[in-house]
Design goal:
Elements (H helix, E strand, L loop, with lengths): L6 E6 L6 H14 L8 E6 L5 H8 L4 E5 L16 H6 L4 E4 L2 H5 L5 H13 L3 E6 L3 H5 L3 H12 L5 H4 L3 E4 L13 H19 L8 E4 L4 H8 L6 E4 L6 H6 L1
Helix pairs in contact: 1-2, 5-7, 7-9, 9-10
The structure holds 2-phosphoglycolic acid.
Length: 250
């Protein structure tokens, strides 16, 4: 039986969409999903920073929640190139994605960076969406559990039991992101159940309510089977959601 009676579906558009692209994507998505507004579905879109202000004008009175792809852990200061929680509030963001695999592996952010960001996002009233996942080598060496539990224990170190009620986790195996390789539904369930166990050790009953999303080459042909699993509460989609109609198909 499913743990949560709500499905969470979102897309991170990475560095693919301009302001105009994002606006047309969101306008289409909003129209195509209007009939789902009252269903037990939380729909969210995480566009580029430059698109957020205009995206907010389209999503603010809709059922679509708006997210940011990253965030600095300070409100202001000498952090050239960074975006602060205050700035994200100004443009209607409610979800902050933290520790996406590309942040970790391309930009060399570590678990301690994620800890500062999740703490700040929670204190600022956002929904922190902490992304975790093991690499292929870690998986082949049997280190998936250790890797994920370290990412959770460090990344969530400063999160309180109360703040945990607003936390979302995305399990995105690095070997599956943008590669066309997906975890099987059974593999996803096994890892998600493990993640919930690690969360329960820290947060107790709140872990039962924490949405754990799957990400990594999710597409219409595999999504239903993966999302049907007990501990999989939805998905974070990249490539297969770049067109609104494809996202809706998922
Ligand atoms: P993908 O990306 O669906 O293209 O594999 C997932 C992600 O990076 O969140």
């Amino acid at each position: 039986m499913k743990k949560l009676n709500r499905l969470y579906l979102g897309t991170n558009t990475k560095m693919y969409k301009t302001i105009a692209d994002t606006a047309s994507f969101l306008t289409q998505l909003r129209q195509l999903t209007e009939d789902l507004a009252d269903s037990p579905l939380t729909l969210f879109v995480i566009p580029s920073f430059t698109s957020l202000e205009s995206a907010n004008r389209i999503t603010s009175r809709s059922h679509i929640r708006l997210g940011a792809q990253n965030m600095c852990w300070e409100d202001q200061g000498q952090f050239t190139g960074e975006i602060s929680p205050v700035m994200l509030k100004e443009v209607g963001v409610s979800v902050v994605e933290i520790g996406h695999s590309e942040r970790r592996h391309v930009f060399r952010e570590d678990d301690f960076d994620q800890e500062k960001k999740t703490a700040k996002a929670a204190q600022s009233g956002f929904t922190p969406l902490l992304c975790i996942g093991e690499t292929l080598i870690q998986r082949e060496y049997g280190l998936s559990g250790e890797t994920l539990s370290t990412q959770l224990k460090v990344g969530l170190h400063s999160i309180t039991g109360e703040q945990a009620k607003h936390l979302w986790i995305a399990y995105e195996p690095v070997w599956a992101i943008g590669t066309g390789k997906t975890a099987t539904a059974e593999q996803a369930q096994e890892i998600h159940a493990y993640i919930r166990k690690v969360l329960a050790a820290k947060f107790g009953a709140a872990a039962e309510e924490c949405p754990i999303l799957y990400g990594g080459s999710c597409k219409p042909s595999n999504a239903a089977e993966i999302f049907a699993k007990e501990d999989v509460d939805g998905g974070l989609i990249g490539g297969a959601a770049l067109k609104a109609e494809d996202f809706v198909a998922i």
